[in-house]
Amino acid sequence: MSQWHHACGRWGQGRGFSGRSSVKRTGGKHIPERVLKRTLLQKNAFPPWIFFIKLREQNEELGLIIDLSYTRHYYKPEDLPETIPYLKMCTIGHQVPDDDTIFKFQCVVNGFLKENKIMLGLTS
Fold first, then answer.
1. Which of 35, 108, 118, 121 has the most other CB atoms within 10 Å of its CB?
2. What structural domains does the chain harbor?
3. What InterPro entries is this protein classified in (predicted)?
4. pTM over 0.90
């Protein structure tokens, strides 16, 4: 098992989308499912297109969406704009992914960042 097979201590303390992350070129946010179930009623849930409107208002551009969740419960790929590439990488919650999944993720992100200067979106 590699040295990277440990979960970050902050992993369970997700926050909602509040704008671009302080880390340049990435805008990943993690919201644990238990937090969503506890705080977000279905009538208050927002569809993905609202997220894209917010990005546009902030003059941001999203170049790739990587979905790391193990479900299609919250949205469907058909709900996303066809102009933004979408990749689904099923990872089981509360488990550190295996080396192959980590390597695939790193290859996708590094390949994207070499060719693009726009934001990368991660969902989990």
1. 121
2. 33-123 (3.90.190.10)
3. mRNA_Capping_Enz/RNA_Phosphat, Prot-tyrosine_phosphatase-like
4. no
